[in-house]
Amino acid sequence: MKENSEIYMRHALALAKIALQKNEVPVGAVIVRRSTGEIIGKGYNQRESVRHALAHAELIAIDEACHILGGWRLPDCALYVTLEPCPMCAGAIIQSRIDEVYFGASDAKSGAVISVEHMFSLPYNYRPKIYNGILEQECSAILSDFFRNLRSKRKLEMSVRKLQSNINN
After folding, report:
1. Residues with catalytic annotation?
2. Which of 51, 61, 123, 147 could potentially form a cystine with 41 if both were Cys, beta carbons 3.0 to 4.6 Å apart?
3. How far apart are CA 52 and CA 120, in angstroms?
4. Rg of the chain's alpha carbons, rounded to an integer?
5. pLDDT tens across 104-150, in order?
6. What is the pLDDT of residues 27-44, one digit of tens each?
7. CA nearest 58: which of 22, 15, 20?
C-alpha cells in the first residue's frame, strides 16, 4: 500500500476539502482494503455540522468500513488520514485492528501517534504500522489556511462588536 499512499492520501485530501466547505476542521480519511485496493470507508470531520464530539473523520471512515465488512475488525485494511490521529481515534484504530496508518500532517497539540503521545508504541494487544508525512505540505497547508482564516474572522467580529459598542454608548 505504501506505493499507492499518495493516491489514497489525495482521496483523503478531497474529503478534507468537503469539510472545509462546510466550515469544519479540514480533515479527511479513507480506509482501503489492502488486498484489493478498494476504498471501503470514507469520512471527513463533521463535529460542528452534526454537533457530536465523535464525528471525527477517522471514526466515520471506520464505521463505514465496519458496515461494509460486516464486523468490528478491519483486517487487511489501511487508514489514510490528513492529520495525525488524536487519542480517541488512535484508540479506535487499535480496537478495529487496522494494519497500517498513513497520515499527512503531524499534530503538535493533539497527536497521539508521534507528537504528544505514542499510543501505537504502548503495550496494547495490537499495534498498526505507521507511515507519516504523506503529502505533508498539502495536508498542513489546508489546516493552516483554515485556522488562519478562522482567527482573522474572529478578530474582525471582535472589532465589529467593539465598534458597535462604542456607537451605542
Report:
1. 58
2. 61
3. 26
4. 18
5. 999 999 999 999 999 999 999 999 999 999 999 999 999 999 989 88
6. 999 999 999 999 999 999
7. 15
